[in-house]
């Protein structure tokens, strides 16, 4: 199969769909790889390094889209990209279609078979192609929260860990999955006072064991979240209902319960966000303010640490990508974990949760 890697074009997105090491694995199995010039620049990999392992370098994204049987990307295709996709072609990337009906329609019209990283499942449960980026984003969320809390950035002016004699910041984490756990680890590491909310009691038990009393766990209801908001300096939005839009756990009217210039970091923004007042932002302009509360809602947080993120992502996507290259879209029928990954096929949304969420 001819596998194509265009350069990412989302705002400040420096990751790449295939690292040279991953491209080499495809080539060693008899596939051909074409790479848009400069696609690896964000991870300090030159065209020459891709050429050295046998990839062909082409000068435009248009050529990659026109020639490749499968496009391997990182972020969802932007409007100018989805019009270049076609029937019979496979797109393997993050899509996050539930909150994005325009993209869903664009992919349906293109006729492409689109496999979304975030809905591929794993033998041990979980979402193995989302997990590595959730690890990155969870860890980054505390850095982002700490930055936004600084008075010189418009924040409340609290130091995460406090100092002897002065209380640390209170960090409230909504959702105790991969993002939430990594956020809690980083917040604990900085010395903050941390509370994690989840709807799964087994998960809360695991977190309680894991953190050995260093974080408090709470069952997530509208009432308990309201109580937590009054004391929070930073709230991390980390909930997920796979395939669906994120539930709005914090309505706008609850912002008035919060301390002045406290910070919301909505990591779940790629699924539409879990605060009513969230709207996607970019690394260029990451924050905005509503009712005296700072919002950070960057939808491609891992794009800021592309070296770590591209390798972490490729480690997880490689076996699935190789199966798609080997068998084509039939790989989705053969592997029950790839089946839910297929979101769009022959002009239809074929993942039930995604279709239900879109109302299609
Ligand atoms: N903005 C960005 O750059 C990135 C965003 N993400 C997003 O972060 C979100 C979280 O991802 P993961 O941690 O991997 O998901 P996960 O599935 O590991 O964890 C989600 C957790 O939310 C819990 N949950 C569901 N409903 C809840 C509720 N009402 N109250 C409290 N908890 C609830 C679930 O029980 C689960 O433990 C996803 O939307 C994901 O796409 C991930 C990576 C990068
Ligand atoms: C998961 C996701 O949205 C990202 O890595 O950008
Ligand atoms: Mg207030």
Automatic annotation (TrEMBL):
CC terms in the record's Gene Ontology section: plasma membrane
Similarity field: Belongs to the AlaDH/PNT family.
A single MF term (Gene Ontology): nucleotide binding
Listed name of the protein: Alanine dehydrogenase
Domain (Alanine dehydrogenase/pyridine nucleotide transhydrogenase NAD(H)-binding): residue spans on this chain: 149-297
Domain Alanine dehydrogenase/pyridine nucleotide transhydrogenase N-terminal: 4-137
NCBIfam families tied to this protein: alaDH
Residues engaged in binding NAD(+): 134, 198, 203, 220, 239-240, 267-270, 298-301
Lineage: Bacteria, Pseudomonadati, Pseudomonadota, Alphaproteobacteria, Sphingomonadales
Keyword Oxidoreductase: yes
